[in-house]
Structures are given as C-alpha cells and as structure tokens.
C-alpha cells in the first residue's frame, strides 16, 4: 500500500525535478528557484529557497555524500550549491552558452555531466570544477543523463529518441537509435551490477514521448564491447512518460506521466504494483529516498507530493506498530528483542508479572539490547534489585526469550551470508548478493574486495541499501 503523507506547495511554477540525498529533498522549478527540505520531517530549511539562476531550473542532483547540490538552467549554467550553508560554491558555464537541460553526478562524485539544448555535453572534474571534456550529438536536445553505478560511463537520452552510452573519454560505447519514438524523456541506471561468467550486466530504465517505460540490459563482454538488449516494455500509462527512477535497491521503478498518474513497478518482474492519482497536471519528476520508503513526485500543478510505501504491502504505520506491541512473549526472538524500545520492555515486564520492575527499568532506559545483557551483578549493583527471587525470575524469563529464538525458523534469505544473522541494514554488493552493511564493509576492508559468495573480485565497493528486503524482514518480524 502507498499513501500520500504530504503535499509541498511552495513553488510558483512547474516543478521540473526532485532529488533526494540521505538527509535532504531538493526540488527545482520554472520559478527559477530550488527548495530544500529536511527529508525526515519535510520542513523547509532556513536557507531555502535557493535563488541564483536567471531562468527556469530544469534539473537538480545531489553529490553522493549529500554535501553539494548541482542545478542547471536555461541561463546556460550549472550551479554548485553548499548544502551546509545554501551558498553558491561554483558556477559552471556550459560551452557554447546553450540552455542546460540536464545534469548528473557520478556515484563517486568525481565527475559531473551537463547536457544542453544544442546537443552538447560537458564532462566536469568535480573536485577541481574544471571542464574535462566535451561531446555532442547534432540536431537534438539532451534531456536525460545517468551515470552507471561503477562511475565509469554514463547514458544520455535526447529528443531525437536515441540512448547513447559514453565513457569518461567521451567515446561512444553504444548508440541505441529510436529507443523511444518521438523522443526520450528520462533515463536512469539501476544501482546494481550483475556479473556472471564472462559478462558484466547493467540495467537501465528509460521513458519517452511514446508513452512507454522500457527496461534495458547493457552487457559488457569480455572483449570490451557493449551490447544493449530490451528486456521489458511497460505500458501502464496512457500518455508520454516524463520521468522515471529506481529505488536504491533496484527492485522498484517509479514513473510519472502526462496522464497525471504515478506508477510503481516491480522492476525485476516488470509487474505494475501501484497507480497513484493525486496530481492535477502532468507528473514531471519522481525520486526515491535512499534511506526511507518515501517517493517524491513533482508536477506542472506546482506541487510536490510525498508518498510512503507502507512496509511494501497492505496496512499502515499505525496498525504495524500495534501489531509489534501486541506480540505475545512466546513469539519473540533474541533478534527481535534487541530491537525493542523501552516501552516494549515495559509491556513485556507487565505481561510476565514483573510490574514491580517497570519504573526502575524506565528510569535506567532499559531497552531490548540492555535487557538481553542483564546479569545478576548488574541487577544488584546498578539497578538495585535487592530481592534474590525477583532477580532469578527475571533472568529465567530473559533466558526463555533467548531460547525462543532458536526455534523461530528465520527464512534463509533474511540472514546475512557472512554472519548468518538476521539482517538489520541489508545492502546489495556488486556481486548481486545482499549482506548486512557492517559485515560486508568489514569484509571488503580485509578481504581484498573479493565476493564472499563467488570469490571473484568485486567490480566496485559501492553498496546499495536493499529497502525491499529490509521491509520484507520488517513484515516477517511483525508477524512473529
């Protein structure tokens, strides 16, 4: 289930793009401004709106760390903003002074690409803010751009209808002509890299004026050549599709259309999951949050809608919380207990007839993790539980919680392949497998970047949060 949780109504003209960082949401508009919001509570930051462009702002994007925001405009510039102060860090003038329609950071934040109305591309060295190379496709307008997750190449789309793959030397690696009849609107790389045998595969989604959303596979062969193959054509919208974006785990795909709808797909199986109808005019922008189950959609109705994916399925946040707090103690496991809040611990004490300890535990901020670590010594010396019988009863109940976890039967796909423990922050590595974030980071730092599952070298150390798996684990925990 997907629910609308907020509508932002600060722009005075069409909203052209939305972008999330880990902590912020940025939007840009035909009103020449950018608006910056705290992604947690959607409050506008004190230095917002950002004003500095002379004409409509077509695109905005965050650097990987979220410290910088790039925006481009009809005024032929790409502006770099500090997200600490809201001040302009640099103004990059596009070669030829043509209106800049698109900009994109590489995932490693070493490069920034901008594309213009005259078909030119500018590749910038971001740390130095210097122009590195230029390229061009004649007789077209660049309207789409996305970097690969390895940061070594990027895809562009134009009003001519072609998709072109470029390397950092501005060599064209592949050209897919007539990818979208009447023109491309947007393109975006999936965050994961698939590898097997002698082939490395990337996924790209594109949409266009032909009312279609397409998913492509780009295969890099051992010879170094690239081949592009159409995997799926999605027809869930009845008018030109203007924007598309992958979730940070690559498992969901969202798109916005002239038909005023937002569609959300299972990207792997090309299945339509939700169709959202809330905007009054064309949906021009969409973006997933990398850190929470939120989607932002922007429209020519001048609004930005914020949607929440409710745990990836039916139900709502309130009922999920009720379900967690209403669990019987026999259905709790050690791993679930470690997630308990102080209130959960208090309710468990009441259920077990240990109400005399509630106030004392609250005063000492005992949550699930603290509960599992209690000993006779800490109960006596730190919590001042003088009764030997009460201490023994509590510790017996804690041991029962630990014993319950052994019999619970956690699905294997929820366990980290490295630690064999239930994952709390699952991430996808370059080998396509999901791991506990802390475990795979430690592995990469000590194992020479090899895959724990295949023993092959990891093409990149980039880790992508697997929100779909995290939500599935959350659903399982709630039901147990």
Keywords:
alpha+beta; single chain; 31 strands; 480 residues
Share in helix: 10-25%
Distance between the termini: 21 Å
Proportion in β-strands: 35-45%
Q: Numbering strands along the chain, what is their spatial order in the largest sheet?
A: 1-28-27-26
Overall morphology: globular
The low-pLDDT segments are 312-335
Question: Would you tell me the overall average pLDDT?
Answer: 87
Can you offer a commentary on this structure?
The chain is an alpha+beta fold and 480 residues long. Helix content is 17%, strand content 39%. It is built from 9 helices and 31 strands. The protein has helices spanning 317-325, 334-337, 342-351, 358-363, 368-372, 376-381, 388-406, 437-446, 467-479; strands spanning 2-8, 15-20, 24-29, 33-38, 50-51, 57-62, 68-73, 77-82, 88-93, 100-105, 111-116, 120-125, 130-136, 142-147, 153-158, 163-167, 172-176, 184-196, 199-208, 213-220, 226-234, 241-246, 252-257, 261-266, 271-277, 283-288, 294-299, 304-309, 426-428, 434-436, 464-465. It has a 4-stranded antiparallel sheet with strand order 1-28-27-26, with no helix packed on it. The radius of gyration is 25 Å and the shape is globular. The model is unreliable at 312-335 (pLDDT under 50).
């Amino acid at each position: 289930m997907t629910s609308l949780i907020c509508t932002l109504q600060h722009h005075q003209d069409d909203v052209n793009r939305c972008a999330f960082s880990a902590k912020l949401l940025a939007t840009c508009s035909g009103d020449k401004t950018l608006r910056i919001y705290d992604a947690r509570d959607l409050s506008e930051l004190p230095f917002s709106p950002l004003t500095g462009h002379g004409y409509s702002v077509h695109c905005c994007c965050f650097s990987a760390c979220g410290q910088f925001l790039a925006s481009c405009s009809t005024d032929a510039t790409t502006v770099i903003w500090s997200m600490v102060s809201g001040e302009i860090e640099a103004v990059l003038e596009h070669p030829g002074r043509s209106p800049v329609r698109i900009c994109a950071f590489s995932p490693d934040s070493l490069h920034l690409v901008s594309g213009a109305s005259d078909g030119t591309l500018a590749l910038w060295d971001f740390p130095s803010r210097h122009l590195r190379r230029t390229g061009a496709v004649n007789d077209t307008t660049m309207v789409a751009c996305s970097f690969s997750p390895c940061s070594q190449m990027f895809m562009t789309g134009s009003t001519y209808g072609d998709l072109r793959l470029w390397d950092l030397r501005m060599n064209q690696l592949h050209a897919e002509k007539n990818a979208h009849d009447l023109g491309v609107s947007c393109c975006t790389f999936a965050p994961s890299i698939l590898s097997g045998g002698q082939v490395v595969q990337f996924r790209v989604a594109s949409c266009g004026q032909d009312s279609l959303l397409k998913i492509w596979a780009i295969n890099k062969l051992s010879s170094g050549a690239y081949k592009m193959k159409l995997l799926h054509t999605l027809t869930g919208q009845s008018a030109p599709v203007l924007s598309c974006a992958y979730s940070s785990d690559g498992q969901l795909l969202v798109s916005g259309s002239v038909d005023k709808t937002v569609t959300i797909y299972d990207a792997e199986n090309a299945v339509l999951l939700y169709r959202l109808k809330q905007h009054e005019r064309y949906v021009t922008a969409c973006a997933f949050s990398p850190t929470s189950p939120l989607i932002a959609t922007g429209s020519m109705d001048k609004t930005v809608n914020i949607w929440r994916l409710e745990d990836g399925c039916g139900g709502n946040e309130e009922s999920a919380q009720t379900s967690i707090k209403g669990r019987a103690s026999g259905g709790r496991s050690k791993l679930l207990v470690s997630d308990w809040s102080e209130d959960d611990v208090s309710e468990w004490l009441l259920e077990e007839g240990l109400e005399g300890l509630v106030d004392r535990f609250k005063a000492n901020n005992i949550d699930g993790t603290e509960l599992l670590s209690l000993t006779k010594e800490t109960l006596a010396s730190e919590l001042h539980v003088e009764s030997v019988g009460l201490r023994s009863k509590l510790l017996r109940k804690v041991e029962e919680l630990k014993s319950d976890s052994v019999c619970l039967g956690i699905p294997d796909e929820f366990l980290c392949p490295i630690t064999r423990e239930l994952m709390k922050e699952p991430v996808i590595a370059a080998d396509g497998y999901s791991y506990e974030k802390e475990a795979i980071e430690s592995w990469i730092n000590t194992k020479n970047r090899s895959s724990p599952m295949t023993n092959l070298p990891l093409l990149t150390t980039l880790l992508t949060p697997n929100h779909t798996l995290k939500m599935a684990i959350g659903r399982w925990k709630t039901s147990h």
